[in-house]
Write a structure and sequence with these properties.
Length: about 100
């Protein structure tokens, strides 16, 4: 997809991160707080929602957990259980309530 995006050598992740910056999106931590979700105060707290390899990747880019941007951290969160029982169209999968 990168090679076909606006005839430039951009990748969609970079483009989405920059869109978030351009539009003034708040940090991942602040969005979790705003939605009443648990708020990670340290990299160790992030283990509740993210696998270790993702945490290490984020740590290699961001100095502080409060600096992590919404798109990369949000994209790497596992889906809540309700989503694993339904298709993307919102219809129930066979054999699922």
């Amino acid at each position: 997809m990168r090679d076909q995006l606006f005839d430039k050598r951009l990748d969609i992740v970079t483009l989405n991160i920059n869109r978030g910056r351009d539009h003034g999106f708040d940090s991942y931590v602040n969005y979790r707080r705003a939605y009443g979700l648990s708020v990670p105060n340290s990299w160790a707290d992030l283990r509740q929602t993210h696998p270790e390899d993702v945490i290490q990747s984020l740590r290699s880019v961001y100095d502080d957990i409060r600096d992590v941007e919404l798109y990369p951290a949000g994209e790497c969160e596992p889906l809540p259980p309700i989503h694993s029982q339904r298709s993307w169209s919102g219809t129930e999968k066979p054999g699922m309530p």
